[in-house]
Structures are given as structure tokens and as C-alpha cells.
Amino acid sequence: MNPLDNVTALLASLRMQPVDFEALYAGKNRLTPLESVELFLAEQQRLRVEKQNLLRRRRAGLPAEKTLDTFDFGFQRSVSREQMLRLSDMTWVEQAYNVCFLGPPGVGKTHLALALAVKALDLGYTVAFETLDNLMKLLKTEDISGVSKRRVRYLSKAALVIVDEVGFLPLSQAEANLFFGFISSMDERVSLIVTSNKGFDEWADFLGDATITTAILDRLIHHCEIISMSGNSYRLEHRKSIT
After folding, report:
1. pTM (global) more than 0.85
2. How many CB atoms lie within 10 A of CB 26?
């Protein structure tokens, strides 16, 4: 076994990342032994952070990565770039504050939620994304499915959880109770971003219980930035026909 193979095997046994030594030390022939070790360890740290970032992104489950730069603030004027830039510093996550985007379909609620999620990931926060429909499936099968149980546990340990499409489908009484339990478990501990096509005054309609609705909203909006959006659907306005 040649020296490179020996080093590669040692790195694997120590659970360290493989390194391109030729590239790392190219043009650095005058390094002292201590400087060589320092450079190697710095590269190990960089590779480890990179691996952790990729893992967090995969576990987040974002349907797409969006940015504020790709959001058309000229078309959607009910929210300002300045308002979103203020939120993108993510300091509110440290205080377990919430953000709610309310408005009709197509106005950019999910785009903005995903842009904040990407920013949080870039800053090193643990993020998770679920539609309300899928969240209900997870909560209803948590006791019988290992996959669901692990995902719910991951949600509970995240710094930021996005719950998308709240209000698109009505919930049964049992599902409304599960949603209340979920919101309560997150309260003042995990930040939530919620997108909904319904105003808060309409939530009792799809939750089916005024008391549950009041209890959920009491916890959700106690410390919360509420962004009400309006206007036409961006997708419909910019639809493309088959040619």
C-alpha cells in the first residue's frame, strides 16, 4: 500500500474527510510541519461544515430553493423588499418568534417562506418544511411508523419549521386536535413560518371548531409577524402557453 492509500485509510478510520492533498498543498512547499498540520485541519473543518450544510438542506425537505432576489416585488406590492430584508437577518428565530403569510393563491407566500428558509439554512439553522396535509399524515401515523416518528422528532428539534398550505383542505375534529397539539409543542420554543390562503377570521371554517381555533391562534400569533398579501396570482399572470 502506497503512502497515499495509507493516509486515506487512516482518514477513514478516524472518520475524517478525504482530502485532495495535491490541490491543498500546491505552491505551499515552504510550510513548516506545524503550518502543514494547521492547513490540513482547517480543510477538515471546512469539509465538515460543508457536509453538515448539505445534510441539513436535504433533511429540511424544501420543495425548491428560493431567494428574495428572484421575487418580483414590482408585481407583488403588498409586501416590501425592505420588510423581507429585515426578516432575513433571522434574529427572530433566536427568540422563537413566528411569521405568518396570509393571502390568496399565487401571490408569493410560499416563495417568501422558502426564501427565509434558505437564508436560515445558510446561517446554520436547522430547518424543516411540511405542507399541512403532510404534517397531518405524519402526526396521525407517528405511533405506528418509524419514518413518521423520526420526522416529527426532527420537526420538534428544528430551529425553524415551515407549515405550508394551511386552510386549503378542511380538517376533521381529530386532525384539528393534532394541529393544536403540534402548535402547542412548538410554542415559544421553535419558530414557525405559516402560509395560509385564509384570513384568521376564516380559520374556524376549515378547523371546524371555534374553541380550537382560538387556542391555536392564541399561541401562533402571540409573538408573530403577520404579513397580509393581496393581488392577482403571479402564476396566472405569467402563464406560458404550449407553442
Report:
1. no
2. 9
Question: What is the chain's length?
Answer: 243
Give phi and psi for 231, each to the nearest 5. Answer: 110, -175
With residue 77 as reference, give the H or E element that holds it: none
Residue scoring higher pLDDT (232 or 170): 170
Find the helix or strand (DSSP H, E) in which 187 lies: none
Instruction: Give alpha helix (H) positions in the chain.
Output: 3-13, 21-24, 33-60, 81-87, 91-94, 109-122, 132-141, 146-157, 173-186, 203-207, 210-220, 234-237
Cα–Cα–Cα angle for 64, 102, 201, rounded to 5 degrees: 145
Residue 201: DSSP 8-state: G
Q: Are 214 and 180 in contact (CB under 8 A)?
A: no
Q: pLDDT by residue (tens digit) across 98-145?
A: 999 999 998 999 999 999 999 999 999 999 999 999 999 999 999 999
